[in-house]
């Protein structure tokens, strides 16, 4: 009984034979028959012609496979020693399957295997079908879309497609909806604030002194991102203290929503080395000069953030500190909380529970 490799070879050979029989008038039926017989001896002696009723004139893959026709074809295949090949998949935790195409595949072979697989998964009551296509297999995208798949998300090296094949309500989760960014308040012992002027973006060339800001990388914690961004833009080493506040906005970067965390950091180096590629200038600026900027005073959001920070400087405000805790999957994750009214420090809380 032919499986994976042999069946794949049969598909490819049939495709090649079909192409030869339809595109070259000099290729005899005997040559095509010999080609097919090299894969399956059953084709020996088969009279292959170029007529419309020929075996090779039919589409090699099934454009639509009903559950009844699938069962019939599988039964016929068993009798002939051939088993239809399904795409390899693993079950997810929500009643669906995930297919990871990790080898080069012919488009028509993939389309045929996908049709048969979808029919089987429907028969089994599966819900969502995910297909991860590496960039090397981008030739398969059109066939998947034709079979009912749509884009879900993409990364630099792959695209993820999904198809809801159940009659139940669609519960496929949307792609990530938010981008996360940070801004850093860093003040030295002289009461000066670390500020920068950007060489790119909407603040470029406007003489505006602003906080170091940046996006949080994939898999990066907010507190770690704040430390990294300050180091990259100014060369200053810092320690994370707390999140002072955060804001949410919508329809920003590629129509995604945005979360911005204003963080307080404590410096332990003071010599500025600006990032030449993104930062036009950087300095330690007196607080009163920063607050006096029209940009800060006239922008309600920045004005509020500055007032919150100044309240923290005057010890009249408490933000969100971090505590490293284990999740239900035993992974460590930072919890941000206001410890003002807590009876214990974060470390004491952990020790009390252990």
TrEMBL record:
Signal peptide: none annotated. The keyword Hydrolase applies. Residues 177-308 form the Nudix hydrolase domain. Pfam families: NUDIX (PF00293), Nudix_hydro (PF18290). Keywords: Hydrolase, Metal-binding. Transmembrane segments: none annotated. It comes from the Eukaryota. SUPFAM superfamilies: Nudix. CDD domains: NUDIX_ASFGF2_Nudt6. GO terms for molecular function: ADP-ribose diphosphatase activity; metal ion binding; NAD binding; NADH pyrophosphatase activity. PROSITE patterns: NUDIX, NUDIX_BOX. InterPro entries: NUDIX_hydrolase-like_dom_sf (IPR015797), Nudix_hydrolase6-like (IPR003293), NUDIX_hydrolase_CS (IPR020084), NUDIX_hydrolase_dom (IPR000086), Pre-Nudix (IPR040618). Belongs to the Nudix hydrolase family. This is Nudix hydrolase domain-containing protein. It comes from Arachis hypogaea.
